[in-house]
Amino acid sequence: MNNDSKIKQIVKEKYSEIALQSKETNAASCCGATSACCGDDPDSYRGYNIMADDYSKLEGYNPDADLGLGCGLPTEFAKIKEGDTVIDLGSGAGNDAFVARKFVGESGKVIGVDFTEAMIARARDNAEKLGLNNVEFRQGDIEDLPVTANKADVVVSNCVLNLVPNKHKVFSEVFRVLKPGGHFSISDIVLEGELPARWKEVAELYAGCVSGAIQKKEYLGIIEEAGFTKITLQKDKIIVIPDDILAKYLSADEIAEYKKGTTRITSITVYAEKEAKDDRNCCEPGSGCC
Q1: Mean pLDDT for each 10-residue chunk of the chain (290 residues)?
Q2: Residue 94, number of CB atoms within 10 A of its CB
Q3: 3-class SS at 91?
Q4: Residue 112 three-state SS
Q5: Which of 44, 112, 122, 262 could be cross-linked to 97 through a Cys-Cys bond (beta carbons 3.0 to 4.6 Å apart)?
Q6: Domains plus CATH for the chain?
Q7: pTM of the model as a whole
Q8: Would you give the DSSP letter of residue 47?
Q9: CB–CB of 237/266 below 8 Å?
Q10: Strands 264-273, 229-239: pairing kind
Q11: Reduced to 3 states, what is the DSSP secondary structure of residue 204?
Q12: In sequence order, what are the residues at sequence separation of 6 or more whose Cβ sits closer than 8 angstroms to the Cβ of residue 18?
């Protein structure tokens, strides 16, 4: 098993566990990772979430679908219109998909794609309870989306791409599935400066959205390389990790050094467009032509 496969397996196992947990348990941890990532006592973090923003005031919000796993509000910025087709990458229990459904209305469609069987099952159960017939959830790898080319008007994603080893491939897939003239709004975790080496060696922190993050400049460069235009930062906020969590992985001296340094863990929401004319003639998933 190569390193990318190992990372995917770690993520799949962790998020299968998370799918069976409550929002309160997930919110007590680092980007939804289990308590091994961010402390053994969930009650010590109850009352705030390190990464996630508050969805509760958005139309279409469904508490049963909110596992506290995000790091932004991409659907709020995504310029979704009635009748649009929206794809949600890493759709989890359906939180962003159900908010997007409120925007697209009866005439639109929302497709959620997630890697984890348990998440898909939970999302489908939530959709059934809500009686929504134009929201569907597909199991698949967002590096090879189970969606035909030129399908979506809008792509959204919330704190997912940092978990994926091949970010170039993901953005290439986003480009492929968007219609010419379509756009995306994606929230994700990025870095400014280098993380302590020890963090990168901890698998738990990869599933917790920290050690899988890349430099902000590199992240934006990948988007540009994929062919997108009008790249815009819609939101940019610094993530402050509590000392209790830092102490799990760093000594007191290392924590002091980290805090004095220039390294920042940041949540960004990025908007970009696929130009109305697409000369690449992208074809179907798995064909390799794009």
Answers
A1: 62 62 51 39 37 82 84 94 98 95 97 94 95 96 96 96 90 98 95 76 52 87 98 92 78 86 90 82 58
A2: 31
A3: coil
A4: strand
A5: 112
A6: 3-273 (3.40.50.150)
A7: 0.82
A8: T
A9: yes
A10: antiparallel
A11: helix
A12: 26, 32, 33, 34, 67, 69
